[in-house]
């Protein structure tokens, strides 16, 4: 059975929330959409709400999927969902840092190779959202 990892595209005022991974070693220092593994019995939306609370201390509402799922490892699919902040200011509890980036800054980070490789597949979708199309 395949496992799902869910990641959140939190967008506020034309900027996307990115988080810088602290682990594992091959991903440490790279920027990602924050999220984590969906636990048995959870929906992807429930898992994303739990992960963003645990990792960043924020409450979100979860929206539609962005782009297509990406296989990050054998039998592990990564899914991105839109999310909106309801309460709280994101704090990096498990990440090295967080950043709010606009469309140009996101493209520049992808071009520099400092975004988690799987997430770069969503660049066109995220770019369109950030530019309000
Ligand atoms: N959260 C997240 N994980 C990603 C992204 N891109 C990507 O390849 N991954 C990979 C890294 C990890 O192998 C896996 C998710 O790991 P995680 O560390 O975020 O999940 P978790 O919080 O449930 O982790 P854990 O405490 O169970 O170790 O998916 C992304 O944008 N967000």
UniProtKB/TrEMBL annotation:
The UniProt record lists the keyword Hydrolase: yes
InterPro entries (UniProt xref): MutT-like, Nudix_hydrolase, NUDIX_hydrolase-like_dom_sf, NUDIX_hydrolase_CS, NUDIX_hydrolase_dom
Keyword field contains DNA damage: yes
Name the record gives this protein: 8-oxo-dGTP diphosphatase
Cofactor: Mg(2+)
Keywords: DNA damage, DNA repair, DNA replication, Hydrolase, Magnesium, Metal-binding, Mutator protein
Organism: Williamsia maris
Family the entry assigns: Belongs to the Nudix hydrolase family.
UniProt enzyme class: hydrolase
